[in-house]
Each structure stands twice: as C-alpha cells, then as structure tokens.
Amino acid sequence: MRMEPVMNEGISHVGLDVHKKSISICLLLPGSSSAEEWTCPNVPAKVGAMLRRIRKKAPGAIDVAYEAGPCGFGLQRRINATAGFSCMLVAPSLIPRKPGVRIKTDRRDARKLAELLRADLLTEVHPPTPSEEALRDLCRARAEARRDLTKARQRMGAFLLRKDRVYTETKNKWTLRFFAWLRRQMFENPYDQKVFDSYLLNLERIAERVAELEEVIDEAAVTEPELVEPVALLRCFHGIDTIAATTIATELFSFARFTSPRGLMAFLGLTPSEHSSGSSRRLGGITKTGNGHVRRQLIESAWSYMRPIRVSRALRERRKDQPGWAVAIAEQARKRLHKRYWKLVSAGKHKNKATTAVARELVGFIWAVLSRRTHQESEAA
Q1: Considering the domain boundaries, does residue 118 fall inside one?
Q2: Does the residue 179 lie in any domain?
Q3: Residue 2 lies inside a defined structural domain of this protein
C-alpha cells in the first residue's frame, strides 16, 4: 500500500536551497501536491521581498526549512522574526536520500526539503543565540591558532634539523630558554638567515595570538553569565581546565536537549559504528559524526586519566567553593576512568582506543553534572 505524505492542514511548507549569492525557493500550499518555485538573490532586500511574496500566497502559518551550512544563522533568525513564519535548520547528514537518484539541482533540493518538511522527516539543528555563537567562534579561533602554532613549530624544527642545529640545553623545547637559544642562531648564507628570520617571526606572532585569545577566553569564563556556572562545574573534572571547559560549554550551549548520556555520546560521534544484518553483528570504530570540536577536546582531556590517581594542587583549587555533588561526580570519574584505561590497555587494546573509550565514558559523567545543573535551573524558574 502506497503511503501518502502527511498533510498538515492550514500550514504551508517552504524549502530553501541557500547559497552565498542565491536562494532557490519551493512553496507547497496546504492540501496541494503542486509546487511554486522561483529563485531570488541572497541579499537582505530581496529576502524581504521573498518573505512578502510567500506571505501573499500563503496567508496561514508557514513552516520553512533549509540546510545548515556555511551561510550561518542570519537567514533563520530573520525568518523567525517575521510574523507567521517558523524556520528550522536541517542537519544535512540526516536528510533522507534515495540511492537511485543521480540528478541534483538547487530546484530539486528545495523541492525535496519542502516535501520532507511536510512529511515531518527532517532532523532539526539547534542554532545558538548571537552571543553563544560569538563565544563559540572565539573558542574555535583559539583552536585554529593552536593548529597554526603546531604547524609553525614543525616548520621551524624541520629547518633546524636540515641545518644541523640541535638544541641540547634542556629536555623540553618551546620554553623561554629554547626561544632564547633560537634568537642566538646565525647562518652564514644570507638566504638561510632570511628563511630562519621569517620562520621565527611567524612563530612569535602566532604564539602571541594564541596567548591573546586564551586571555580573552579566561576573562569570558568568569564574566559571561551563560559560561560562569557550567565552566566552574566542568573544571572540577581531572584534565578539564578553563579552555577545555569553555570549549565544551560553548559548543553544547543548549544542554537541555540531551535527555540521556547516550544521546550526547552519539551527538559527539563517540559511539561505535555498526553494520549488522540478520545473525551477523559487526561493530567498527567510532562514528565521528556530530560536533568534532568537543570530541577532540574530550579525547585530549582523556589522556590525563592514564596518570596515577592523585588530586593535584591545581585541581583542589578549581574545586574550591564548588557544589559537593559536582565534586563527588568528578572524583568518581577520576577513579573509575583511570582504572578503565589501564584495564583496557592490560587487555591488549591500543592506547588510542583505550583513550577514546575513556573519553566516551567521561561524556557520561559530564552529562550527569550538566543535566543536574539544568534540572536545578528549571526548578528554580
């Protein structure tokens, strides 16, 4: 029996295929299988005219959907601010697709979004507020600067190795003594000296940029109302300090949407992939879907659980004046995850796999802390 699409009485459905320069529109009126399609430039004046045209043709409630992408959230915020419109951002990776379809155009994409929206088959992305987006971009800028710093260090190290300049004064590199040693290096060939000076200048500039961004993040973590409490709670965990806690808080922002730890693990791409059929069950590596920024940060934090169990002075200072229940959960995580790591390693698991498993379990403890905070806030309201 052929399933008919769900018809929401009185609601018009609009699919948008949004690009930097243009927007393809498909309008499905209530109870109608025919669509009206057109294209408009992606500029504020034309977007306003597009909304007025849709309103003229569909006087009732209007649901709009478009894929989340590089164009950001500005269009969605503008549509939601218009009376009678409700716009949802769609997760592109979760849009149903027909394997046999080999033709893809902007017009077809807009039509497909409108039809799937009418059938209630789309998965919504929860967009941040403008202030949450700004804080998230700040943390992402710092992460990008750190990656640039790593590349700059690799270039400098490779150049010095080719020129037979080996640092032996201390065991650790990239310290103040190492930079002092770098500045004393001189090369006979003027071209070598020019290359070295260029690498050194780039290295110092990126290091300064990282330090400036980290200083701004440290300040935001204690001044921004939406960050102060979650960052303080997350800093109770072993291996999670201000930068890591702020990254997690700004990437997850609306935490109430995660109703279970498994849902949060899946959102972060830390659950095993699976391909099972009949009596066959095959598990693979982690899915690596969803938010990679938090996943990367959690795996970095998980490495600290391989070290001996002890509460450092810095950790005791971070836990000072924090709720007892949060400290108790963090302490339980510290003991359990240390044992978990070495149990997996002793069983023959590679240390990278063991660390990933620890990161997945760490998500459960983080969910317990942040969900309890969210529950307390809802009760207080």
Answers
A1: yes
A2: yes
A3: no
What was the pLDDT predicted at 277? 83
Q: What are 298's two structure tokens?
A: 């959690």
The reported pLDDT for the residue numbered 2 is: 40
Q: Please write down the long-range contacts of 102-106, taking CB distance under 8 Å and 24 or more positions apart.
A: 106/17, 106/19, 106/22, 106/24, 106/39
Q: What is the pLDDT of residues 180-191, one digit of tens each?
A: 999 999 999 999
Query: Which range marks the domain in which residue 306 is found?
Result: 226-380
φ, ψ dihedrals at 59, nearest 5°: -70, -20
- C-alpha span between 29 and 84 (Å, rounded): 14
Counting DSSP H helices and E strands in the chain, the numbers are 13, 8
Q: Which amino acid is at 335?
A: K
Which distant-in-sequence residues (6+ apart) come within 8 Å of 116 by Cβ?
15, 65, 95, 96, 122
Element (H, E) at 136: helix 130-162
Phi, psi of 65 (to 5 degrees): -145, 140
pTM listed for this prediction: 0.89
* Domain presence at residue 203: yes
